[in-house]
Amino acid sequence: MSHSPSDHVPLQLPNRTRRSESIPRRLLAEGKYHLLPVYALLTTSDLAREGIRNSGSFRFADHVYRNEPSGRYGVGRVVDRVLLRLRGTRSMRNRFFHSRREILRAVRETGAAGSADQIVVLSVPCGIARDLFEVAEILHRDEPALYENVRFVGIDLDNEPLDLSRELTKDHPAFDFRCADALKAESFPVGVDVIVSLGFGEFLSDGMLYDFYRRCHSSLNNGGRFITSASRRDRISDYLARELAELYAHYRSAEQLTDLLKSAGFVKIQTTRDEVGFQTLAVAEKGGGGGGGP
Fold it and tell me: Is the distance from CB of 45 to CB of 71 less than 8 angstroms?
């Protein structure tokens, strides 16, 4: 019988930054009484409750991407709707649109180049792989011949989002989900054409992020594309995340993100700021010198 990492020890996920067993008790101890009613109100929202209990979890991100308010006691749905309209939340949703758009662009351009090989798209860590799913849906509907030549791979350390991704993509046979650590070189397949990674770098130091980018670079074929993003600090969202969820993120400018990608070997790095202004959206390419693989 095989065992996942979670069968024996708690998963050590970079985004699980919460340390207090009870946020209300910590707020009381620190004399931050004004935040207690805010905490109570926010936990009626499914989005806020997930963020508070499980930091920047895959369910939290997927809730933002789906943009469907839900919550408890009636008021929770109202609170959820307000949170989903915050600038920081809308900006986070834009990175999902960025991923979907750029994966489609890369797949179409790789297909148009006439390669006889199967096109491989990797999401790492994938969480609930909604962006890959929507790309598959679009290709299946609009470009069936291209759809038949694409394989989607998702890697995550947590089996739960992998199971949810398998259920989400059950009608698409060209999906492969693997339980593996995104911070280990052996987790990466070789010969990949497109890699997407969203919301992961915000929980890694510069050194760890450089190592991760190097692994992505090694995994790509020459000319392969890496799709990623970085967050700028939103004062309200960051304050609530730190105080009520103990969620601590690394914020980076477009220049800092570009420098890290360059140092990892990427070329033709294009960055844009999303329409809200808190996400730097990036696409980088692996140059032609040397083959893919670690």
Answer: yes
